[in-house]
Amino acid sequence: MYYCRTSYIADYNRDEAVKYAIKWALKRNPSYFDFEKLGGDCTNFASQVIFAGSGTMNYTPIYGWYYISSGKRTASWAGVNYLFDFLTGNKGSGPFAEQVDVRDVKAGDLIQLSFGGTPNYNHTPVVIKTGSTANLDNILIAAHTDDRFDYPITNYSWADIRFLHILGVRKP
Fold first, then answer.
1. What is the pLDDT averaged over residues 72-88?
2. Could you tell me the pTM of the whole model?
3. Helix 80-89 vs helix 42-54: angle between axes, to the nearest 10 degrees?
4. Tally of structural domains, the chain
5. Helix, strand, or coil here: 3?
6. Domain span at residue 12?
């Protein structure tokens, strides 16, 4: 942990994130709305996982990352591309990430898949297991919408893929 101007940066708790993903991969946490019938629940689930590992939301209206209820949340909580924009651009409270090569992904990180090609990404699985050096052949994920647990990422057919590595969490 190290300090910055008005907050400090804490480690992202990957163990807690993965524990949450394992517990809820094949069922729904009743504390959160299920977005499956509104376009999919994958990014909502990914956000829940990240929150389990970070413990901090960013309550900035419109551009933050938070969930209070289905009607009081940011687009980044449940929208694939909005979550990417938040995590890679976040300079305030909460988790922050960078897009990395497959070999730099770890358990608790995210993968985003585009089925029709960039710039539109459609799915956000959570990495729950990798080999000692991650590669496409040894990554297992958990996901909602088409619920998956211990599922090889190579079982998907995608046009584009990107990997998001959670770097840490800014705490107020």
1. 98
2. 0.94
3. 30
4. 1
5. strand
6. 2-171
